[in-house]
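Researcher: Here's the sequence for the chain we discussed earlier.
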Amino acid sequence: MGDLSFKAGYSDGDVDTNSSPATHLNEIISNRFSRRQTLMGGMTASAAAFFGTSMLAACSDEELASALTTPTAQAGATTAATSGQMVLLAAGEGSWVQSGGPEVELIEHNGALGFIAPAVSSATPVEFTLTSGGALSAGASSLITTTGDGNRSGGDNSRNGGDGQNGGDNGQAAANRGDRVARVDVGPAKLTFAAVAKNFDDVVTVPAGYSVKVMTRLGDPILGGVSEYANDGTDTNFAGRIGDHGDALYYYGLGPNNRRNDNFSKRGLLVQNHENLNVQYLHPNGPTNVDTGPRPAAEAIKEIEAHGVSVTEYRDTGDRKWEWVQGSPFNRRITPNTPVVFNGPVAGSDFLKTVFSPDGRTGRGTINNCANGHTSWGTNLTCEENWAFYFRRSGDDAARTARELRGLNRYGVRGGVGNYAWSTVPSSEDPNQVFRRWDARADASRTALQDYRNEPNQFGWVVEIDPYDPSATPRKRTALGRMGHEGAWLGVLRNGKKVAVYMGDDARREYFYKFVSDAAWSERDGNRPDRLAVGDKYLDSGTLYVARFNPDGSGDWMPLVHGSVPNLPDYEFADQADILVHARLAADAVGATPMDRPEWTATNPRTGEVYLTLTNNNASNRPLDGTDAANPRHYSDPRNGSPNFGNPNGHIIRIREGGDDPSATRFLWDIYLFGADSADASGDVNLSGLGDENDFSSPDGLWFSRPQNPAGRVRPLAWIQTDDGAFTDRTNNQMLAGLPGFVGDGGARTITNVGSGGAMATQSTFVGNQATPATLKRFLTGPDQCEITGVDTTPDGRTLFVGIQHPGEDGTPSDFGSNWPASQSGGTGRPRSAVVAITRDDGGVVGL
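Model: Thanks. This is the structure I predict for it:
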């Protein structure tokens, strides 16, 4: 158990100001560490080492108003700013040269010169001296550092590793020059925006001082020669258009030389998943025979091609005015019909063999792509979630073995014609069997090489894509296991340490997984041009684990390795390929902890701690006597006056690996946040102390800001997105910004749960530090009937990209449930999923 000792070094800031008589945070941490002294093998570092000297406080109304005014540094004066703010340099006779403090990059904003206040852990001065001579142009400061190709890394080039400590003695020399020195006292990052109020407006609402621009929308043409989108149901060729239900997204920097540049913020490739369909809007009057078939081929191919992944070039045309580029040579659509290859232990096995792929090494496409991941070698990981429901399968039990039926049932490949009934397209219209493949029924008179009984096994994987090479064939990484993948997020990479990938399986009472590579990470691999070959090295060979959360706040990673996984009473594992294809069954066998819908994972880039959203659960899956420490609540959150028992608001759990080692087999955990309705919830439900500015429900999307800019350093900013059914009687879905602490910043708590009929039961758990408006605040609300999903920024943090999925999902072709995105500018029309670009009007880092 000694491997659970942690290393100190995370500077988090002191306890937040809070009107409640809570125990001081240092005391809470000390108490909790003491409680687990035996487990951790002794805490050798003081808890105080985790904290800086600053006090994080909520912003007053005056401070919020001030935050909307861009600080301007004047010669002979001192100006205050906080990390991430744009600071302008007043025009004067001469040139500005930085003379003290952490190095910053001069940039131009609205015709003036300024800089982004750097990340700091405590108050730190930045000084500029006005010298004689011509005016200084952006990028000319003598202290500015650049990357190898001349592109700067986002204005946070602190000399001491980004903590914002004074970089040298130039400040004193500058001070001796008296009234020609402009001093800016930079404080730690704050959530300086005013919280967006809950609302039912059919627009994307952001705080005052921010602007929204609609970018790529459903149907927009991205390949050359594809016509504009009519948005009336008559459009075709979705293999050349943006797909539907845009979900997770990621920005890949593209330099002026057309090569990968992770630090370039003016041009990039936006890779976005397209999970599902608002099928009623894809056809003039909705789909034909969608529930039973037969389906017209023209409708079915449109629906198939509207799934998958898109790669689209985005360009900043000046001062964060973004456009997308139709016909860019980098643009690409990956659909369910795109050729793919299988890698890893399952490749070539009988599980993957079909009439299309007799060797079990190739396949077609990817579907129901939900959350994502990205690698440090520049590739995208897209994840197949609810793939099981697309398949037709009924009446073939007699042609299946008991083993096959056990696996099919565990993954939900059961009866019916499948989502959208694509397999019912007449065979005369299906020469390439692009529709027939969705019929997974086994024919007793045929073999697995003569039908598509194994086609479901070709889905449920993590798929690696090289966004910079449109000719590269996507690779399905079978070593990461087959499930309802909700993301695949890498842990913090350290040279010489193994690579870890964290994954949720998005269904009620499913599990939290980790893959650990056999190969240790080499930083040299991060810049190799053969990116998918690097993926072969780190993603094709390793160990898949599943998590067990213990009631004492510890956890175990249990290996899913043939020979160590016990057989189930009704299923015997044949080999490692069998375990990976049926990872859910293997997790059942080792006694993993069933979770409340494990969705997105995200890694705090400073602490290495891993966060997992648990969206919700209901009473039938998690009854009053079925809670546990990691899934502790059972209560009712009435929706429109009707009881709604279970855990309808969800929570976010986080873990810290033993020894901060991604290959550790033990971890510590607590619950960072509990969703709740602040107006109705009791103290045993609203365990995070949420208020009107930050209450939420059903967390789904989750992401930490990039470490290239101040929002991702010192105390990284977390973004939380909701996909809610329990709280939508209060507000449209939303996105919040938070400044989390770390595992252990709260304490133990015993709560009283309430079931139907008034029955009660107690449950112990571990609760993170209380949320306040200083540490959690609503940043955005979406339009009617949408889900907020997909988030990333440019490397400099000055543009935030957010996905708005399925607005108007409950509408019809004649009665839209939303008019967005047309409604964003006052128009009307069929609703469309789309990406928005959000910027601060003053040019600062979004969210700070």
